[in-house]
Amino acid sequence: MFLIFFAGLLVVGLVIALAKLAPQKLFHFLSQPNWISWTWTGIFFALLLFLSVYAAFGLIQTHWLPAILCTSVLAIAAIVSLYNKQIRTAFSALLGYQRLLLEIGLLLVGTFLTFIAIELPSNPAITGFWIEGLILENVIILFIFLIFHLLFQRTGAGAVIAACLFECAGLAEYFVVSFKGVPIIASDVLALGTAATVSGSYTYILNERVLISFAVLALAIVVLSLTPKPRRAKRPVVAFAANALGGLIIAGIAVFIATTVSFSEFPGIKYNAWIPLDSYHREGFISSFVTQIQSFRPVQPDGYSKEEAKKLLSGYADKYEENLAHADSSSSSSANS
Fold first, then answer.
1. Which of 54, 67, 155, 284 is deepest in the core (most CB within 10 A)?
2. How much is the pLDDT for 24?
3. What distance in Å separates the CA atoms of residue 14 and residue 20, rounded to the nearest whole number?
4. What's this model's pTM, rounded to 2 decimal places?
5. How far, in whole angstroms, is CA 45 from its chain's centroid?
């Protein structure tokens, strides 16, 4: 297993060396990457290095086909990323509305790929996903992508950071389900200190579903990193402020929706509090987790008021005192007789 990932690492390393050191006249087909292209390539190189080391310790347990698939996708993604500058420059030559449509399209594709990458490791029923849960989870991911994309000035880096955070959450879900047989719930977040204390007693094995998830994440990163580069604005400060404001507005809308609209009331969304893993498999990790968090906010019953609640509580207290006094008097009478 180690040799498969190490071979991919060597191939990418050789291509990087040629792009960096070889004379351009001899290898004119190679790109001249800028620092951004090197950064994207470095991400995939680092992931291949991580998997090589992980496999060397025997912590990847699967057959050879998923390993070859994962290595091939990561290696191709690293090489394609060397041409990130040229591809984005070509996209930037499109007309304004064409660039915008392409930008939205790439974000949508990246959203769906990230959704698959999140669910693959821990969801064996991904092919039987409920359409309502699929739509809700993709909308949540897209909202987060838009926020990060705008806050990072539409460079492509923001959505990639969000995708990697989602993948980390998906891996955490995979390990928790593997160790405990139950999904991550909101109370687990409050107990992170305890989880960190006992985490050393587990062995973190990666299987074929995780490797394929990494391959899908790599495709998502490539897609998101190629969002068309915005034209240089005449007023850079104004453009920066407009993007940042747009991201904050979308964040505000997302928070407003999450705190005022109960996803459990959506048609087809039925969170199972008794068997949460059932909901996670049917409706998705992210959508079920958010729905479960919303259940922490109880809905005020019709006709409820603090004054009425205090009056009822006072009445129950008085009744309790009366019963207690009656019980004491009865005990005294029994003792005297």
1. 284
2. 59
3. 10
4. 0.83
5. 22
